[in-house]
Inverse folding.
Protein backbone atom coordinates (compact mmCIF):
# COMPACT_ATOMS: atom_id res chain seq x y z
CA UNK A 1 0.00 0.00 0.00
CA UNK A 2 1.21 3.50 -0.82
CA UNK A 3 1.53 5.95 2.01
CA UNK A 4 3.62 7.87 4.48
CA UNK A 5 5.20 6.26 7.50
CA UNK A 6 6.32 8.24 10.51
CA UNK A 7 8.27 6.74 13.35
CA UNK A 8 8.28 6.50 16.23
CA UNK A 9 4.69 7.20 17.24
CA UNK A 10 5.80 8.43 20.67
CA UNK A 11 9.20 9.89 21.54
CA UNK A 12 10.64 11.19 24.76
CA UNK A 13 13.53 13.64 24.84
CA UNK A 14 15.72 14.62 27.72
CA UNK A 15 16.85 18.18 28.20
CA UNK A 16 19.80 19.02 25.92
CA UNK A 17 19.33 15.97 23.71
CA UNK A 18 18.94 15.89 19.92
CA UNK A 19 16.31 13.52 18.54
CA UNK A 20 15.43 12.55 14.98
CA UNK A 21 11.94 11.87 13.67
CA UNK A 22 11.65 9.62 10.66
CA UNK A 23 9.38 10.17 7.65
CA UNK A 24 9.30 7.82 4.65
CA UNK A 25 6.92 7.88 1.67
CA UNK A 26 6.40 5.47 -1.22
CA UNK A 27 4.03 7.69 -3.19
CA UNK A 28 6.80 8.97 -5.48
CA UNK A 29 5.96 12.53 -4.44
CA UNK A 30 8.48 15.29 -5.06
CA UNK A 31 7.49 17.57 -2.16
CA UNK A 32 7.64 16.75 1.53
CA UNK A 33 6.72 18.85 4.57
CA UNK A 34 7.13 18.91 8.32
CA UNK A 35 4.54 20.58 10.51
CA UNK A 36 4.28 21.13 14.23
CA UNK A 37 0.94 21.16 16.05
CA UNK A 38 0.47 22.35 19.60
CA UNK A 39 -2.71 21.52 21.57
CA UNK A 40 -5.74 23.33 20.19
CA UNK A 41 -3.68 24.93 17.44
CA UNK A 42 -3.33 24.59 13.69
CA UNK A 43 -0.36 23.22 11.75
CA UNK A 44 2.74 25.38 11.59
CA UNK A 45 5.29 24.79 8.85
CA UNK A 46 8.79 23.88 10.02
CA UNK A 47 10.63 22.89 6.82
CA UNK A 48 9.68 21.80 3.35
CA UNK A 49 11.44 20.28 0.38
CA UNK A 50 10.38 20.45 -3.27
CA UNK A 51 13.14 18.20 -4.59
CA UNK A 52 15.99 15.97 -3.47
CA UNK A 53 18.97 17.79 -1.94
CA UNK A 54 16.99 21.02 -1.54
CA UNK A 55 14.83 22.34 1.30
CA UNK A 56 13.48 25.63 2.62
CA UNK A 57 12.76 26.99 6.06
CA UNK A 58 9.14 27.37 7.02
CA UNK A 59 7.69 29.68 9.65
CA UNK A 60 9.23 28.07 12.74
CA UNK A 61 12.54 26.52 11.60
CA UNK A 62 14.67 27.64 14.56
CA UNK A 63 15.92 24.68 16.58
CA UNK A 64 15.16 22.16 13.83
CA UNK A 65 17.16 20.68 10.97
CA UNK A 66 16.31 18.42 8.02
CA UNK A 67 17.93 16.56 5.16
CA UNK A 68 16.60 15.28 1.83
CA UNK A 69 19.19 12.85 0.49
CA UNK A 70 16.57 10.51 -1.01
CA UNK A 71 13.22 11.24 -2.59
CA UNK A 72 11.47 8.86 -0.19
CA UNK A 73 12.92 10.19 3.05
CA UNK A 74 12.75 13.52 4.91
CA UNK A 75 13.97 13.14 8.50
CA UNK A 76 13.56 15.95 11.04
CA UNK A 77 16.06 16.53 13.84
CA UNK A 78 14.89 18.42 16.90
CA UNK A 79 18.02 19.96 18.35
CA UNK A 80 18.78 21.10 21.88
CA UNK A 81 18.34 24.67 20.61
CA UNK A 82 14.57 24.07 20.38
CA UNK A 83 13.56 25.12 23.88
CA UNK A 84 9.95 23.97 23.80
CA UNK A 85 9.81 20.87 21.58
CA UNK A 86 6.83 19.12 23.18
CA UNK A 87 4.27 18.88 20.37
CA UNK A 88 2.64 16.66 17.75
CA UNK A 89 4.80 16.48 14.60
CA UNK A 90 3.25 15.71 11.24
CA UNK A 91 5.00 14.82 8.01
CA UNK A 92 3.26 15.19 4.66
CA UNK A 93 4.00 14.69 0.98
CA UNK A 94 2.37 15.93 -2.20
CA UNK A 95 2.85 16.20 -5.94
CA UNK A 96 2.51 19.57 -7.65
CA UNK A 97 -0.40 21.63 -6.33
CA UNK A 98 -2.57 18.69 -5.34
CA UNK A 99 -3.56 17.64 -1.83
CA UNK A 100 -1.04 16.62 0.81
CA UNK A 101 -1.05 13.16 2.35
CA UNK A 102 -0.13 12.87 6.00
CA UNK A 103 1.62 10.33 8.14
CA UNK A 104 0.18 9.27 11.49
CA UNK A 105 2.33 11.73 13.42
CA UNK A 106 4.94 11.59 16.17
CA UNK A 107 4.13 12.85 19.62
CA UNK A 108 7.29 14.26 21.20
CA UNK A 109 7.52 14.92 24.92
CA UNK A 110 10.36 16.45 26.91
CA UNK A 111 11.06 14.60 30.15
CA UNK B 1 -1.53 39.43 8.62
CA UNK B 2 -1.58 35.64 8.70
CA UNK B 3 -1.39 33.88 5.37
CA UNK B 4 -4.48 31.79 6.12
CA UNK B 5 -7.09 32.82 8.70
CA UNK B 6 -9.98 30.92 10.23
CA UNK B 7 -12.34 31.57 13.10
CA UNK B 8 -11.24 29.20 15.89
CA UNK B 9 -14.79 28.57 17.10
CA UNK B 10 -16.20 26.48 18.53
CA UNK B 11 -19.00 26.52 16.00
CA UNK B 12 -21.99 24.72 17.47
CA UNK B 13 -24.85 23.50 15.27
CA UNK B 14 -27.75 21.11 15.94
CA UNK B 15 -27.85 17.73 14.26
CA UNK B 16 -29.32 18.00 10.75
CA UNK B 17 -28.41 21.66 10.31
CA UNK B 18 -25.97 23.23 7.85
CA UNK B 19 -22.53 24.08 9.20
CA UNK B 20 -20.68 26.91 7.45
CA UNK B 21 -16.92 27.22 7.84
CA UNK B 22 -14.95 30.13 6.45
CA UNK B 23 -11.34 30.85 5.53
CA UNK B 24 -9.54 33.87 4.10
CA UNK B 25 -6.05 33.98 2.62
CA UNK B 26 -3.62 36.78 1.86
CA UNK B 27 -1.55 35.54 -1.11
CA UNK B 28 -3.27 36.48 -4.38
CA UNK B 29 -1.24 33.96 -6.40
CA UNK B 30 -2.55 31.01 -4.38
CA UNK B 31 -3.47 28.19 -6.73
CA UNK B 32 -5.15 25.41 -4.79
CA UNK B 33 -7.29 25.17 -1.70
CA UNK B 34 -8.13 22.31 0.62
CA UNK B 35 -10.31 21.46 3.59
CA UNK B 36 -9.07 18.83 6.03
CA UNK B 37 -10.87 17.28 8.98
CA UNK B 38 -8.89 16.39 12.08
CA UNK B 39 -10.12 14.37 15.02
CA UNK B 40 -8.37 14.86 18.34
CA UNK B 41 -4.97 13.15 18.42
CA UNK B 42 -5.17 12.06 14.77
CA UNK B 43 -3.61 13.31 11.57
CA UNK B 44 -5.65 15.46 9.16
CA UNK B 45 -7.70 13.79 6.44
CA UNK B 46 -8.75 15.46 3.20
CA UNK B 47 -12.42 16.44 2.86
CA UNK B 48 -12.43 18.65 -0.24
CA UNK B 49 -10.10 20.25 -2.73
CA UNK B 50 -10.98 23.18 -4.98
CA UNK B 51 -8.91 24.86 -7.68
CA UNK B 52 -11.19 27.27 -9.55
CA UNK B 53 -13.82 29.87 -8.64
CA UNK B 54 -17.28 28.62 -7.83
CA UNK B 55 -18.78 25.70 -5.97
CA UNK B 56 -17.71 22.08 -5.79
CA UNK B 57 -20.02 19.51 -4.24
CA UNK B 58 -19.21 16.05 -2.90
CA UNK B 59 -21.99 14.34 -0.99
CA UNK B 60 -22.91 16.45 2.04
CA UNK B 61 -19.93 18.76 1.52
CA UNK B 62 -19.70 21.86 -0.68
CA UNK B 63 -16.57 23.95 -1.07
CA UNK B 64 -16.88 27.51 -2.37
CA UNK B 65 -14.00 29.58 -3.73
CA UNK B 66 -13.94 33.29 -4.51
CA UNK B 67 -10.45 34.31 -5.61
CA UNK B 68 -11.37 37.99 -6.04
CA UNK B 69 -12.35 38.15 -2.37
CA UNK B 70 -9.62 35.68 -1.34
CA UNK B 71 -12.18 33.58 0.44
CA UNK B 72 -12.90 29.87 0.60
CA UNK B 73 -15.68 28.18 2.55
CA UNK B 74 -16.98 24.72 3.40
CA UNK B 75 -20.65 23.90 3.88
CA UNK B 76 -21.66 20.68 5.61
CA UNK B 77 -25.31 19.77 5.04
CA UNK B 78 -27.30 17.49 7.36
CA UNK B 79 -24.59 17.74 10.03
CA UNK B 80 -24.03 14.62 12.11
CA UNK B 81 -22.42 14.20 15.54
CA UNK B 82 -19.62 12.30 13.77
CA UNK B 83 -18.79 15.55 11.93
CA UNK B 84 -17.64 17.05 15.25
CA UNK B 85 -13.95 17.74 14.69
CA UNK B 86 -11.52 20.51 13.84
CA UNK B 87 -11.63 21.66 10.21
CA UNK B 88 -8.42 22.99 8.76
CA UNK B 89 -8.21 25.23 5.70
CA UNK B 90 -5.01 24.81 3.64
CA UNK B 91 -3.75 26.98 0.79
CA UNK B 92 -0.97 26.40 -1.73
CA UNK B 93 0.76 29.77 -1.60
CA UNK B 94 3.19 31.60 -3.85
CA UNK B 95 6.20 30.27 -1.94
CA UNK B 96 5.10 26.81 -3.14
CA UNK B 97 4.27 25.57 0.32
CA UNK B 98 1.01 24.29 1.76
CA UNK B 99 0.00 26.69 4.54
CA UNK B 100 -2.69 25.90 7.09
CA UNK B 101 -5.05 28.04 9.08
CA UNK B 102 -5.43 27.54 12.81
CA UNK B 103 -8.60 25.47 12.37
CA UNK B 104 -12.26 25.81 13.34
CA UNK B 105 -13.66 23.43 15.94
CA UNK B 106 -17.13 22.20 14.98
CA UNK B 107 -19.53 20.72 17.53
CA UNK B 108 -22.69 19.04 16.27
CA UNK B 109 -25.26 18.73 19.04
CA UNK B 110 -27.45 15.56 18.96
Amino acid sequence: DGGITQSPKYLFRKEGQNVTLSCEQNLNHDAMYWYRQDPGQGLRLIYYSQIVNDFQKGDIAEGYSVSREKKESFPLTVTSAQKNPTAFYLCASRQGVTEAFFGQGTRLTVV
Amino acid sequence: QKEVEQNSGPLSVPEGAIASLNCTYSDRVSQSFFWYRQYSGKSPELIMSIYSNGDKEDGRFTAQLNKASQYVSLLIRDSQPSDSATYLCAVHTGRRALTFGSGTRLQVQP
Notes: The radius of gyration of chain B is 13 Å. Chain B has a mean pLDDT of 94. Residues 30 and 95 of chain B are 9 Å apart (CA to CA). The first strand of chain B starts at residue 4 and ends at 6.
